[in-house]
Specification:
Keywords: Signal. This protein is of the alpha+beta class and about 140 residues long. It has five helices and five strands, in the order ααβαβαββαβ. It folds into two domains: about 35 residues, no CATH class; about 110 residues, no CATH class. The longest helix is centred in the N-terminal third of the chain and has 17 residues. The chain is globular and about 35 Å long.
Length: about 140
């Protein structure tokens, strides 16, 4: 196993010099991940979660970070801070991006009213994909 890791490292380094790049099992380029400064990625399916997907795309386009640094311990405080001034609305959830589980979330997060099924489904989808990542993991959130 150490030999395989060493060989992959040599090949990746060689790729930098000859202009090719290795990819991980998700098709993400190792060099692209390093350049973008993230460790993992999650792609939310827009067809399944259209409201949340549009919210994430709009928030990123408006300048919010697409990279989420996981920090579960501070989520409750960040959620409270981000939702200040946004009253509950019957029939809707208050969706926040960046999410409260991200260090980048909290005060100044983009808030949008979204139907509960879409919001909770998307939250579950992302949560399931990051549940085994430790705090401090930088996750690129995208929508496709």
């Amino acid at each position: 196993m150490k030999v395989k890791a060493f060989l992959l490292g040599v090949l990746a380094l060689a790729g930098v010099f000859v202009g090719f790049d290795l990819q991980n099992s998700h098709g993400t380029s190792f060099a692209a991940k390093k350049a973008a400064n993230y460790d993992e990625s999650v792609t939310l399916p827009m067809a399944k979660y259209p409201e949340t997907g549009k919210h994430i795309k709009d928030a990123i386009a408006a300048g919010h970070s697409a990279v989420c640094t996981i920090d579960r311990g501070g989520a409750a405080d960040r959620r409270k801070e981000s939702l200040k001034g946004y009253p509950t609305k019957p029939g809707y959830d208050r969706d926040e991006f960046p999410m409260a589980m991200c260090k980048e979330g909290g005060k100044g997060a983009d808030i949008r009213y979204i139907t509960p099924a879409d919001n909770r489904g998307a939250g579950s989808y992302i949560g399931n994909h990051v549940e085994n990542y430790p705090d401090g993991t930088k996750v690129l959130i995208s929508v496709k």
